[in-house]
Amino acid sequence: MLGVIGDVVQDVVVWTEEEVRPATDTKSQISMTRGGSAANVAAFAAHRYPTRFIGCVGDDLGGHVVERELAGHGVDVQLQRRGDTGMIVVLIDEGGERNMFPSRGASGMLEPVDPAWLEDLRILHITGYSLQNEPTASSVIEAARTVKAAGGQLSFDVSSTGMIDLYGQDAFVDLMVELEPDYISANQDETAMLGLATEDGPGPLLERLDGLLLARAGKDSTRVMRGCDVLATVPVVPAEVVRDLTGAGDAFNAGFLTAILHDPGPEPDLVAAVEAAHALARRVLAHAGASEGDEAPSLLDPA
């Protein structure tokens, strides 16, 4: 089973249909959806591989809606309840770019999890966003250590340069070295900030890690690196429709991890896995919010 632990919120998504008009009304469309990077990965992955989500929500309407929505995707949902369910307002301009205003609420209140929730996980995926607040940060780190100690693998999405700043760059680097993630997912700004990669190839931090780096670069090719080597450079097929960038990185992670888990060979086909990640991200780009629309594949369909 794939495990995903960390942030889950309600997203209030605002699509502006004109330039923002200060101090008065701006024509827009607004919807409320499930959000949070970790929860998004679980929702996308569960259609393709058995997936468990572990997180914290409030014992309120928002929390019950989020739980029901995730379960509707086939996710095995394991939640603690305290505080108020987190919420993020996502403002999307006419070009699809996002500005986010988070209030993480219960998402930052996850306490140590039931060990039974971690026992059967082949891979645990964590996000940098989950390191922002205590006790969630310590609970997620302890869960990662538990899965690694039991022989499972760890996937780590760096999440954002802002998150690195909040945590402290040196502390963030030390944590990555300590946790030894098997898979690291990061965009161009994040890889540069941490020294994971440069324009020419692997960076100095990657040489200290044993994990595989998925260096995403938007419309440009994704580079797959380990140590001092570039193992593959996988072109990105252009998206025909870009409705909303929300959740595209999460879709990439879900597509890659489920492809790896479906690969029966001793050495997974990394190029094929990245191509599956790109394909799922393209699906999500074409729909509003962190969604692939109403035509998502059935559970266990690896497509």
From TrEMBL:
Q: Does the keyword Transferase apply?
A: yes
Say which domain of life the source belongs to.
Answer: Bacteria
| UniProt KW Kinase keyword | yes
Record-annotated membrane-spanning stretches: none
Q: Which SUPFAM superfamilies match?
A: Ribokinase-like
InterPro entries on file = Carb_kinase_PfkB-like (IPR052700), PfkB_dom (IPR011611), Ribokinase-like (IPR029056)
Q: Which UniProt keywords apply?
A: Kinase, Transferase
Alphabetically, the GO molecular function entries are: kinase activity
Q: Which residues form a coiled coil?
A: none
Pfam families cross-referenced by the UniProt entry: PfkB (PF00294)
Identify its protein family: Belongs to the carbohydrate kinase PfkB family.
Q: What is this protein called?
A: Carbohydrate kinase family protein
What species was this sequence derived from? Answer: Ornithinimicrobium ciconiae
